[in-house]
């Protein structure tokens, strides 16, 4: 396992043997008695910005771990979504990039703000044409049975309508009702009897970097009380083109927007992890724990963490 010293930015301390040992189980959490999935965010650039390199690294991991599905965290097509179900980007950014045999499995998809600059209904409609593209609605749930019993339920959100700065812009959220979506999430989480409740959205609530342009106050105000009230342990998002992890109020917030273009995030303001590197996230769920790890495009583990039930 490889974890960069620059990437692990907690309390400012150097990596220690104890921290390496603590992280190691999560990095190699793919076991026969786990439900596994891969996540990729902010990727659709016709193969550019190392998108193809990340795709190959994902394919290698998928061949080894046999995840049940791949999760797309939004901003699926840059810069302005797709125009229709016949848009050439379906081939140049998706079908012809993630063409390896091990990636021919379900892709569970959510929408990002760049997707809202194009034809959102076309991305939903493409689910009827594709054997793997699964976007049944703007927000939805999915339940998986855990080996050994119990369930993990995932709640897929459409976060752009919550962001007030998009009103009246090219990111066209007109006609969307964030209050109705929040009520749906509150009700769905309240009715769920799953052992693990995992919420997925494009935008972050909290990030390790913190501050304007990283944290999203609109989402914090709307969603954090709901997540905490219903015992959500993990929130996964894209949007910020970096790898980040931070825990706030008992919820682990994981930012994974590194499927193609990235930036150097610099020093975070909160204890956690932050790194600018192309890659993806692998997650393993058992009855006892959720383990996740950031993998870069060279197949190296850059950070790993395990959350106990």
Structure, described:
The chain has 309 residues and is α/β, with parallel strands linked by helices. Helices cover 21% and strands 24% of the residues. The protein has six helices and 14 strands. The chain has helices spanning 17-27, 51-65, 89-95, 120-125, 178-191, 217-229, and strands at 35-40, 69-72, 107-109, 133-134, 140-145, 151-156, 196-200, 234-237, 243-248, 251-256, 273-275, 279-285, 289-296, 301-308. The strands form two sheets. A seven-stranded mixed β-sheet has the order 4-3-2-1-12-13-14. Helix 5 (178-191) runs parallel beside helix 6. The model is unreliable at 1-30 (pLDDT under 50).
SS summary, helix count: 6
As a percent range, the share of strand residues is 15-25%
What is the topology, as strand order, of the major beta sheet?
A: 4-3-2-1-12-13-14
Average pLDDT confidence is 91
Q: Which spans have pLDDT < 50 for at least 5 consecutive residues?
A: 1-30
Shape designation:
globular
């Amino acid at each position: 396992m490889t974890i960069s010293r620059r990437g692990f930015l907690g309390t400012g301390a150097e990596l220690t043997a104890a921290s390496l040992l603590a992280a190691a189980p999560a990095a190699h959490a793919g076991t026969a008695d786990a439900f596994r999935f891969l996540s990729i965010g902010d990727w659709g650039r016709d193969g550019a910005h190392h998108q193809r390199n990340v795709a190959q690294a994902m394919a290698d991991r998928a061949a080894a771990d046999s995840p049940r599905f791949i999760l797309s965290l939004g901003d699926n097509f840059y810069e302005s979504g797709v125009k229709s179900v016949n848009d050439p980007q379906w081939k140049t950014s998706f079908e012809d990039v993630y063409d390896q045999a091990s990636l021919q499995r379900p892709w569970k998809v959510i929408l990002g703000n760049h997707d809202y600059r194009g034809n959102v209904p076309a991305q939903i409609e493409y689910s009827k044409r594709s054997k793997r593209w699964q976007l049944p609605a703007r927000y939805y749930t999915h339940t998986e049975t855990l080996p050994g019993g119990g369930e993990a339920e995932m709640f897929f959100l459409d976060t752009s309508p919550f962001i007030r700065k998009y009103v009246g812009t090219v990111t066209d959220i007109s006609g969307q009702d964030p209050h109705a979506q929040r009520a749906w999430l509150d009700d769905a989480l309240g009715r769920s009897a799953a052992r693990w409740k995992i919420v997925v959205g494009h935008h972050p609530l909290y990030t390790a970097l913190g501050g304007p342009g990283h944290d999203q106050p609109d989402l914090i105000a709307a969603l954090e009380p709901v997540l905490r009230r219903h015992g959500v342990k993990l929130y996964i998002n894209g949007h910020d083109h970096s790898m980040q992890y931070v825990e706030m109020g008992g919820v682990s917030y994981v930012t994974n927007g590194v499927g193609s273009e990235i930036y150097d995030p610099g020093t975070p303001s909160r204890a956690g992890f932050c790194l600018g590197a192309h890659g993806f996230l692998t997650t393993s769920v058992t009855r006892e724990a959720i383990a996740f790890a950031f993998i870069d495009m060279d197949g190296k583990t850059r950070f790993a963490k395990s959350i106990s039930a």
